[in-house]
Design brief:
With about 140 residues, this protein is mainly alpha-helical. It folds into two domains: about 1-90, no CATH class; about 90-144. Helices cover about 80% and strands about 0% of the residues. The protein contains five helices and no strands. The chain has helices at about 5-25, 30-50, 65-90, 95-115, 120-140.
Amino acid sequence: MTPFLYAIAAGLVMATGSIVEKLGLTTVQPYAGLFVRTGAVLLFLGISLAPLRGYADWSGFTPSAIIFLALGGLLAGLIAHFLYWQSLKATSPDYVVPIMVGANQVGVILLSLGILRARVSLGQVSGIALIILGIACVQLLKPR
């Protein structure tokens, strides 16, 4: 599968997850829900370790890789997800997700510039402008 198709598939799975999570958050507070979510992930990882061991090549681990992966998990899997669920509990996925994804894209490009020293194309700059415009439209034109 190409990176493009992986990205499309991930987006569709995340969209489905957003709808399912909204249903789960009707009676649960976001921070408490994170414990259930994390427990389910840990359980699945434990059960899948044997049949999917071919996907778990442990040879590339270095101390810095472990630190960066753990930090990414805390940032994306805990803090960002908590903030996302706080927003999702208060409103609908069709409002929250476009803003979150747009902010994510702008953040990735800007942080890639500063941290990874990535080159930014005119298309990416144009994309950032369109994303910011899109976020403004979603915010300004949301149903009251």
